[in-house]
Amino acid sequence: MYQMTERKNYKLAIYLWLAMSSTAVYAQKKESKKTEKTKTEKTDSTATKVKNINELLKKGIYKKGLFNTIQVKTDIYFEIPDSLFGRQFLIVNKLSQVPMQVNDAGLNKGMNYENKVITFHRDSIAKKVWVKTIVPQVSSPKNDAITASVKDNFSESIIEVFDIEAQNNDSTSVVIKVNKVFDGNQKSFNDVLTNIGLGGSVKANLSYVENVKSFPENIVVKSQLTTSVNEGGVDLAVTLGVTSNIVLLAQTPMQPRLADPRVGFFTEKHWFFNDGQHKMDEQKFITKWRLEPKEQDKEKYLRGELVEPQKPIVYYIDPATPKQWRQKIIDGVHDWQIAFEQAGFKNAVIAKEPTADDKDFDIDDVRYSVITYAASPKANAMGPSVVDPRSGEILESDIIWWHNVMTSLHDWMRIQTGPIDPKARGNKFSDEHMGEAIRFVSSHEVGHTFGLKHNMGASFAYPVESLRSKEFTDKMGGTAPSIMDYARYNYVAQPEDGVTAITPKIGTYDKYAIEWGYRWYPTSTTEQKSLRKLIEDHQDDAAYFYGEQQSYLSTIDPRSQSEDLGDDAVLASQYGMKNLKRVIDNLMKWTYDDGKDLVSAGKLYYGTIGQWDMYSNHVLANVGGIYLNNTVFGNDKKAYEPVPAKMQRKAVSYINDNVINLPKWLFFNDILDKTYAIKNSPMGPYEQTPYTMAREMQYGLIYSLFTDDRLLRLLENELKHQELNSKEEIYTVENLFDQVREAVFIKKSELTILDRMTQKNYIDALIVSTNKLFEKTTVVGLKIDQTLQMPVICNFLEEDKMVRNINYSSMKRVSEVTTYKRAELQRVLALLNKKKNNGDVATKAHYADLIIRIKEALK
């Protein structure tokens, strides 16, 4: 009875709602038509009538600049003069404030997230201003016939339109209302949520334009934009402070400098067309500051005298930077003076704190290059630049300096130099010692803002034994010829060597690269000849070698690796292992803090194991490694040189000694009585049990040793050797399997748990990688724990775009890789069948298990 009554009442409610809604809809439609009519009449009456600017000026605040601005309450207007219609502007968008959720994701104040080139166009008939954008990657001579086609085939796109609200007395400027492109209503000028990966849309009622400043060559607009993110089913408000700069680009772009792959600069792609071509000219412009001698000094400069540039490169120190680090950061910038002097300029680079004289100073203003200090748990630093894409000219640079970068520096120094430097052993270093490390990072990041890429091949120039020489290291002043390498601290030197110069410095390559990129030449013809000669004069000197950054998990050229030292990874790692043993022996002493927990000890222990893993990977890269040289017509270098067989054999011996036979002093020691290795995770410190950690890390290295790409590189070399009847000794896939198998299975009759672990890891790595090739496994793809590696600084995405792409692995399914892996499983199966009745109970069970696994895999 209750249900029936409820249902009747429910139907009645629907009926009444529909009746009321019909009346409401009719009334709403009537009102809407009335409003629409009024709106149309209003639009029609104002469409042909543009106000005089004086009407707005009576109500608002007027400021002069690139565009004069008028603010009427919350409305923002730009007054655009006719002279600027058709000129190119660069929109530069940056984060200026971030809440916890965004900070935690690694995004911070000062980060540039979106740039685009725009032009404004006045439409006097429609009384509108159109905004267009273009990718300025294409050019052609003004008077060539093909230029008409270039214009039509690489045209601008319309991204925004504004009504002309007013004009000045003589109609030489018009006024547009711009709120919509800065308050989040439109994404045409600033699409912050998409570009930082949040997605969604801006909540207009919770967003507003905060401030507008206008200067002679740029406008700065600051906004507060709010969105929401869903976390655990709850919508959380996220408000971002964003700054949009509109920068007037020079009518005549800087004369670009063409890139050469033998010197490491960031580049801008460019396509050049002309009537005389048989094909389009694909060019790359290096990114560089416009550094030129003053007109009156050009003759002096050409005579070889040092002169000051027309406009020096100036960096400002963020006032939020702790005082004890400011001078060290400034020193790190000024360390580059010597490099620019080699290019002919003195006082070319200046770093300073803003003073009262810098009354317009604003960190978010693109007129100021700032070393921004970010309060964040992120341990990083980076040096991106704002570039004029038409020429590669660097307009402004912002180094982002995360507060917690000191944790990475502390880990590096303690693990890599603690055995030889008493100052690098405590839980906290002196400000002076940490300050020197900060100076080094400052120099490295500033190098990026000059356009320099990482030179991961620089450290290969120094013989390993020279890094143990006090005389050599004092003379060279660092661990590599370039501070742009990730050649951190001297882990090669032993305590008895007395080496004290252990911090990377500006080196030979750095000075050479700056000279190549920044020396001024009066004509393009002179420039091209001189730059070519500069490279050719040094092409046989290892100190001038440039090695491209490679992906950590797919290193081809072992000379160009991150975090390595010297010209022999095996020897360097052997010295490094001796020092790691010293760290382990002293770890509890160096981390002692009376009454405190042992988390810091556990973290240092984890980092030390990570250093061992890094050494193993440095060595492993030599197996199947190829030296990649940038060859040009006219030099006698080989483009692809296999790592010598002797070096590959030595590398595998190191892997056998330090991975197949795990260093027990590293994984099983007295530290475990007090703490396990502790890894940081989003959920807090995460303790790693020794057996699990050893098993996982050994497996990752064995799997990496037998990746398809590595074996294919060995096969490529063997094929080339056969077909060309080469007499050189080579290292083959069979050599690799024979050498490792002997180390894995040459064991006593009774196997330990670690012996059995190693054999299982060896077999499983072969089975999984073979099955993956034919997609016949449900095993999730191997995930190697890269957090074990020492922390990486400034490994930003732009580097990845520049890496050489060499195809070694197409059609792997029909290559010899699977044949070799299955043949190896057959060999091991035969070996196990001979051993299966030997040993204790655990050993026999182990052999039986392996036999079943291999048979199952081979079917």
UniProtKB/TrEMBL annotation:
Chain ranges of the DUF5118 domain: 51-98
CDD domains on file: ZnMc_MMP_like_2
Ranges where the DUF5117 domain occurs: 110-294
Ranges of residues in domain EcxA zinc-binding: 427-747
Key words of the record: Signal
SUPFAM superfamilies per record: Metalloproteases ('zincins'), catalytic domain
Name this polypeptide is given: Metalloprotease
Phylogenetic lineage: Bacteria, Pseudomonadati, Bacteroidota, Flavobacteriia, Flavobacteriales
